[in-house]
Amino acid sequence: MTQNNSNNEMSKGDEYLLNLFLTDEGIANPAIWYKRLREESPIFRSSSGAIFLSRYEDCRMVFRDNRLGKDDRDGPGGTALPREESEEVRAYRKEISANRGDSSPSMLFLNPPDHTRLRGLVSRAFTPKRVESMRASIQELTEDCLDNLAEIGEGDAMEILGFLPVNVIGELVGVPRSDWEYFRPLVTAGVASLEAAPTLEELKASTAAFTEMGEYFAALLEERKSIPGDDLMSALIAVEESGDRISEAEVISTVILLFAAGMETTQNLIGNGLGALFSHPDQMDLLWNNAEYVESAVEEMLRWDSPVQLDGRTALEDAEIPSLTLPKGSQIVTLIGAANRDPARFTNPDDFQIQRNEGQPLSFASGIHYCLGANLARTEGQEMFSGLIRRFKSIEQAGDLIQRGRLTLRGYEAVPVRVTSR
Ligand code: HEM
User: Considering the chain, what percentage of its residues have pLDDT values greater than 90?
Assistant: First the structure.
């Protein structure tokens, strides 16, 4: 393993990163830049000081090393890129971190022991058994989306099918059905702050969205305290009332996290999956004629065009990975999208093959922060594609697919489709 840090190579790697993160071309086709990084500078120390990893094994190792954890509530990106953020953006970031008041960070941004405590409490809702028991309601919610698509015959799949994830989380958490639609734009605005290069307007809209969600859930918490339901929020409140294992602020940050982590990501699994099928008509035919491949197809969609393209860790103490020492405070960016296309891990990685059976990609990360909703997301993806195959003779692209212009959470703004019912 080599560390490319001669001036020449460094500037080339920096250039790749800037192309990847900040150009329309990079956002549209990140695989080109990932390949260059992986082949030329797989462990790349950018002039920002952050280390970018693009190989599967290196990323996996970092995810599984608990000396490398979280210390930044804004997630990876921000200061990692080899360019200065604008004065306004830096000042605003400072202002929001100073004004966080008594809001509590979610488990995503915590290290043990707080992470272990919170994750332990919430993970009971996400056992494979529990998710399996939700399958019937996921099927029902999927049918609602498919009915809407069948009725109009042509429309934007992100708009119509993208309701599934928010509805599933709404039901799980215990948000009244009439409010599900209200959450979609809020969550989309909120998660923009996870990107490496958000604009000032996006950051402001994100703060406003999280504040609004915080207020909504503070009110719902009061309601559930007096009238508990059979839902996750009521279950967490019961834990809160039975001792000091979780605070009210943590209940609120947890339910917001479920929406933030589980809505757009799963929408993008559906949208990116459709995009992959449209650009590979042979695989579309194969799937439509063999619905039993749905499980491996969803896994391949997750690998080939991962809804989460990058993640990050900070060295909480001095650490090392092969051929690199990481002094305490080092910032590491794991390029999941690149790791999932690593030829050392996957055969012909740039090919999209729905029957591929080569084990898990890193799309849900690994180690202690491994996605808590992975089973749920897979189930939703499987139900959606099974439903599409069952209901429609064909699904065709009915216009240009429009990228959302984000990289951390990669997906489409619009996926125009036309369906023919069976
Ligand atoms: C295809 C859809 C999804 C993808 C690609 C995805 C991806 C990820 C990734 C990469 C992480 C690790 C983040 C890190 O290490 O910093 C993560 C964490 C998490 N995800 Fe997902 N996710 C998806 C769907 C969901 C769903 C549906 C839920 C729940 C409703 C969910 C809840 C969470 C939670 C709570 C965490 C934090 C776990 C922890 O910090 O211990 N995710 N997800």
Answer: 77
Enumerate residues 6+ apart whose C-beta is below 8 A from 98.
Answer: none
> Other C-beta atoms within 10 Å of 36: how many?
18
Any ligand 1 atom below 6 A from CB of 372: yes
Predicted model pTM: 0.94
What does the pLDDT look like over 379-421, one tens digit per residue?
999 999 999 999 999 999 999 999 998 999 999 999 999 999 9
Interval between CA 122 and ligand 1 midpoint (Å): 13
Q: How far apart are CA 337 and CA 409, in angstroms?
A: 11
Ligand 1 near 262 CB (within 6 A)? yes
Domain that holds residue 377: 3-421
From residue 13, give the alpha-carbon distance in Å to each of 16, 27, 48, 201, 285: 5, 17, 12, 29, 39
Task: Give the C-alpha separation, 123 to 107, whole Å.
Answer: 11
Cβ neighbourhood burial of 98 (10 Å; 0-12, 13-18, 19+):
exposed
Considering only residues 12 and 286, tell me which one the structure prediction assigns the higher pLDDT.
286
Q: Ligand 1: distance of its center to the CA of 364 in Å?
A: 6
**Contact partners, residue 304, CB within 8 Å, separation at least 6:** 276, 340, 341, 352
In contact, 354 and 102? CB cutoff 8 Å: no
Ligand 1 pocket, 258 CB below 6 A? yes
- Atom in ligand 1 nearest the alpha carbon of residue 110: 40
Q: What percent of the chain has pLDDT over 70?
A: 95
Beta strands 324-326 and 319-321 are antiparallel
Asked if residue 89 has pLDDT above 90, the reply is: no
Alpha-carbon distance of 397 to 415, in angstroms, equals 8
Give the CATH number, domain containing residue 394. Answer: 1.10.630.10
Nearest CA to ligand 1 atom 26: 262
Domain count, the chain: 1
Q: Which atom number of ligand 1 is nearest to the Cα of residue 165?
A: 27
CA angle (192, 23, 350) in 5-degree steps = 95
User: Tell me, what's the pLDDT at 2?
Assistant: 41
**Gap from CA of 113 to ligand 1 centroid (Å):** 19
- The response to whether residue 107 sits with its C-beta less than 6 Å from ligand 1 reads yes
